[in-house]
Amino acid sequence: MSRTFPFLPLTASLCLLSSLAACSGGGDGGSTPPGNPPLISTFSPTSGAVGTQVTISGLLFAETPQGNTVRFNGVTATVLSASATSLVAVVPAGATTGGIRITTAAGSAASSADFTVLTGVGAAWTTRLAGPRGRPSGLVWTGTRFAAVGSGGGFQASTDALVWNATSGFSTADDVAWDGSLMVAVGSLVQTSSDGLTWTMRSLMTGLRSVARSPGGWVAVGDGGAIRTSPDGVTWTPQVSGTTKDLRAVTWTGAQLVAVGEDGAVATSPDGAAWTPRPAPTSDSFTAVGSSPALVVATTFPYPG
Question: Quick one: which of 59, 92, 88, 55 has its CA closest to 73?
């Protein structure tokens, strides 16, 4: 007598396999694939020393600095600002001439051209007969031109550092900084410019002496220990520095902000909002501060010698 029931387990097995396939992500129940990887179109400047800010243009970048990993010939850089089409990164210590690579959650892209890392920049100087008029006190390079600010006609711009043209800055300024898309000048007023030619007054705050850009935004310091922060150069928030000494200069080291000033005053901050006063290393007053990957260097007046 023939039996037909052995076909039933086979049917059940096929159904079970079909169910497992559906559970494993087949059909419409699968996960959403990642987005498209970024694309690098250009970067400016195309050469510079360690510490140079480089503006990278393209598409599909992450819109926060931490969402992008930027490497100069394999060495990871600090990203100062980010949008979907533009990044500003700082040439890191140890970088050598080579391509730029950007990595996001969706993938990575490499530049078609190399970035040239310059060494020994600043070792040799050339005296120029022409220069900014008035009393310039702050200077930046935008990738296409120099922009100088100061007093007595100090708002000027030049593409070659030889011929300077007056620009539309108001009143006077003590310092200027550039983040790849915006310049902020501080002094008798707070002013901003996207190109160094046309300036817009943003605030009547006075007594600010120095300004810097960090990954968290703009930071300005000044008289009486004043510190102000801004995400956009327009709206400013007062912060507590922990000192009443005049602060004359501020810089971002790649890891923290360092502000220096009167009677050896030093304060540091990881984000511009929380500041820690540090023991004064000198009784002389600091006038400027800068950093390399290995050192923070400050100048004083009078010279201790």
Answer: 92
The pTM of this model reads 0.64
Distances in Å between the alpha carbon of 264 and those of 153, 278, 291, 303? Answer: 31, 10, 17, 12
DSSP states of 211-261: EEEETTEEEEEEGGG-EEEESSSSS-EEE--S--SPEEEEEE-SS-EEEEE
DSSP string, 176-194: EEE-SS-EEEEESSEEEES
The encoded tokens of residue 259 equal 């502000």
* pLDDT 10s digits, 187-217: 989 999 999 999 999 998 889 999 999 999 9
Q: What is the largest CA-CA distance in the chain?
A: 116
Does the bond joining 270 to the residue before it have cis omega, within 30 degrees of 0? no
The one-letter amino acid at 279: P
What the chain holds in terms of domains, given with CATH numbers, is 39-117 (2.60.40.10), 135-301 (2.130.10.10)
